[in-house]
Write a structure and sequence with these properties.
The structure holds 2 protein chains of 2 kinds. By secondary structure, chain A is α/β, with parallel strands linked by helices. Chain A contains 20 helices and 16 strands. In chain A, the strands form 5 sheets. A 5-stranded mixed beta sheet of chain A has the order 2-1-3-15-6. The two termini of chain B are about 45 Å apart. Classes of the chains: A alpha/beta, B mainly alpha. Chains A and B meet through helix 3, strand 2, helix 4, helix 13 and helix 14 of A and helix 6, helix 12 and helix 13 of B.
Chain lengths: ~425, ~280
């Protein structure tokens, strides 16, 4: 542009003095322009957790570098913020002092919590002007919707799946993965090994720590979504039936009373449990760290197949300039584009959010090599959001405590669920009143 | 006669036992203490499938040194190490100055409101650090220190716990010693430097160890106030390997752990004699 202006001036019949002045003006305007361009580079922060393995740090850094190179007007800074809880804490602290990051990646359950803080930009109109509603897998998109409005784009969804120790199943003469709750119990019985009353291997373990997430899947397999946006329905008969089935499995001696999230994965790898409910995000780790053949199956159904989603969307802060929101949208949109999602899904084990991502040649080749990855995608057709209520942290603790105490035999299932239900709804009401 | 003979016969054993009984007690204890370290070291050299496979045995089939570069490539651990040293060292240096002065004031000076002020200091010990996160965050932000090394140092430059510990130690020093120093022409600073500090060295060292270990391992606060890799510390690098929802990446996590704990271990081994000596003196006094 500065060249062009010099030429224009050069074309004029100019005295030497005017020429000098012109050159000076050109230099000045070029400097001004450069200054303006540097200012126009919108700076965005992106706070993200590391959900599945250490290399996510490097993967994200690579993606951000690529994005920044392709977008001269936007500069994204990726900030590693711990796990999901740490990330939420960091974002809420920043919100507390009125300087939120432009974008962040929380667990989808946090939707109502952030809406309660009036922190999220509504991107419905932007998404409608785009192909979001056509190409995103509906079940994933739904995790970012409240009252028909879209707050963010799903980025790394996962669901629980049933992991199987194929080697152990072959040894026990079982060919088929269990498809219903009844079959699950039978297979678990066949796979449990006790020697002289001493347990050698559990038939089944439900990954603890997130067992409330898996419990919601069980509720959905009973055709119950155990929450609406302002209350929980843990005292529903369908939920009670699910918990009674857990108790039945525990009493049959095929499943431990309690476990931890990492411990249960370790147990599976060590062959101390033959089947395991765990996140799809663990697929790569379990496959690579087990000394036997690992397979993945749908979570068995009861009345229906059902699952619910972990993982998170990219959310955009409301309290920033329109230009910054626009830039944040460009970033979120790029992170969820066909190619990026296809690559991200193959690198991590998370499910790509776009239908078109699953049709890319690279993804098709990957599915041929790791057919287990397809199971989670197929199952996600039955998946919804996970416990999107205000104060979900506390609600999760109430529910987990109810499940733990029931399995430990301290309390009857119906009493436990009623208690958790009352405590949770009290907490939700308290938060809603405060919100006004 | 017979009893005497048996006594003579068994004497070497008795002597050995008498000399070595402490070892009989201490060796198993030492092994117990060492076992996690050994497990960390062994695991850091295993293949991923070996860690939980009961058939694989305790020792790795092949020593996999490549776990170390693989772990260290996750984050810039070199930068993190320097930052950890600067932050922990900065906190320790600042705390030693502030707690010494505060403890001296509380132990030996009289001024109005002393008891009330000391109670407030004690209250500070009782607040869990998480309770003050937001207010500290606001303060650090107003100081314009967010995302810098001082952000991790500033909230910890004073220590109620250290002040309390040192005040108790100062009060045990006989006042006559201070009076003598005053007759020799020492001011407050002189008395503190020449009389009190040399006598409470064991307390200072004990406090130093506690504070170094605490801040070396601190995770949440550094995570909260820093954003760029240039100013982050070692525990955040470890967090990348440990705090994942799919289960920890054990072999690389253990390799990184070896790297993170070794500076402290080396420090302790180098200064071991001095540490132990000063505790001995404390006991003899």
């Amino acid at each position: 542009m500065s060249n062009k202006s010099t030429q224009d001036r050069g074309g004029l019949p100019a005295t030497r003095r005017a020429l000098v002045a012109g050159a000076a003006a050109t230099v000045a305007s070029a400097a001004l322009l450069r200054g303006a361009r540097a200012q126009a580079r919108t700076k965005l922060q992106f706070m993200y957790p590391v959900g599945v393995s250490g290399d996510i740090n490097k993967l994200v850094a690579g993606m951000i570098a690529k994005f920044n190179a392709a977008h001269p007007t936007i500069e994204v800074e990726a900030v590693y913020a711990g796990n999901y809880d740490n990330t939420e804490q960091k974002v809420i602290t920043a919100l507390g002092v009125g300087e939120p990051p432009a974008t962040w990646l929380p667990i989808n359950s946090a939707l109502q919590a952030f809406l309660g803080l009036d922190a999220l930009a509504d991107v419905t109109a932007k998404a409608k002007a785009d192909d979001v509603y056509q190409d995103f897998i509906p079940g994933f998109l739904e995790t970012c919707v409240s009252d028909g409005k879209l707050y963010g784009l799903p980025f790394q969804p996962s669901t629980p799946v049933l992991y199987l120790n194929r080697t152990a199943m072959k040894a026990a003469g079982i060919a088929k993965a269990p498809e219903t709750w009844t079959e699950l119990l039978d297979v678990a019985k066949a796979l449990t090994i006790r020697e002289k009353g001493e347990l050698k291997r559990w038939g089944l373990t439900i990954g603890g720590g997130w067992h409330d997430w898996i419990f919601e899947c069980y509720c959905r397999q009973n055709e119950l979504v155990p929450w609406t946006k302002d209350k929980v329905l843990f005292d529903n008969p369908a939920a009670l039936d699910a918990l009674e089935f857990w108790v039945k499995m525990e009493q049959a001696g095929v499943m431990p009373k309690a476990s931890t999230w990492e411990g249960s994965a370790n147990d599976f790898m060590a062959g101390r449990t033959a089947m395991l409910y765990h996140s799809t995000g663990s697929l790569t780790n379990l496959r690579k760290s087990s000394s036997f053949e690992v397979d993945v199956a749908f979570m068995p159904k009861n009345k229906a197949f059902g699952a619910c989603q972990g993982g998170g969307p990219i959310m955009i802060a409301k309290k920033q300039s329109d230009a910054a929101i626009e830039a944040s949208w460009t970033f979120a949109r790029w992170m969820t584009s066909t190619e990026v999602q296809s690559q991200w899904g193959r690198d991590t084990g998370y499910l790509a959010v776009r239908k078109s991502s699953w049709e890319t040649p690279e993804m098709k080749a990957y599915l041929k090599e790791v057919p287990q990855a397809k199971v989670a995608l197929d199952q996600s057709a039955y998946a919804g959001a996970f416990l999107q209520v205000p104060g979900y942290h506390k609600v999760r603790e109430y529910l987990k405590s109810a499940l733990d105490r029931t399995l430990a035999g301290e309390i009857k299932p119906d009493a436990a669920l009623k208690e958790a239900n009352a405590a949770s709804n009290r907490e939700i009401q308290r938060l809603l009143r405060r919100r006004g | 006669m017979t009893s005497l003979r048996t006594e003579i016969a068994s004497r070497p054993a008795i002597v050995a036992l008498r000399r070595g009984w402490l070892h009989v007690v201490l060796v198993p204890l030492a092994l117990l203490w060492l076992s996690p370290l050994v497990w960390i070291l062994v695991t850091s050299l295993k293949a991923r499938t070996e860690v939980f496979d009961p058939a694989a045995g305790f020792w790795p089939q092949v020593l996999r040194w490549e776990n170390y570069p693989a772990a260290l490539s996750v984050a810039p651990f070199g930068t993190y190490l320097v930052n950890s040293i600067l932050v922990t060292g900065g906190i320790l240096a600042a705390q030693l100055v502030t707690i010494t002065l505060a403890a001296y004031a509380f132990a030996r000076l009289t001024f109005p409101g002393k008891n009330l002020l000391f109670t407030l200091f004690l209250l500070q010990i009782m607040f869990p650090i998480y309770a003050t996160f937001l207010t500290n965050f606001v303060t650090v932000r107003e100081l314009g220190l967010l995302n810098s090394l001082p952000a991790m140092i500033v909230p910890f430059v004073a220590s109620g716990y250290g002040t309390f510990m040192l005040r108790q130690a100062f009060r045990q020093v006989p006042t006559e010693l201070a009076d003598a120093a005053r007759l020799d022409g020492c001011g407050h600073v002189g008395i503190l430097w020449h009389v009190y500090l040399p006598l409470v060295k064991p307390t200072l060292i004990a406090f130093g160890i506690i504070t170094v270990v605490t801040h070396w391992n601190d995770y949440m606060w550094p995570l909260l106030v820093t954003n760029s890799e240039a100013v982050r510390t070692l525990p955040i690098g470890l967090g990348l390997l440990a705090k994942s929802d799919s289960g920890a990446d054990w072999t690389r996590l253990m390799a990184a752990t070896v790297v993170v704990v070794s500076p402290l271990l080396v420090l302790f081994v180098v200064f071991q004699r001095r540490f132990v000596d000063s505790f001995m003196h404390a006991g003899l006094k």
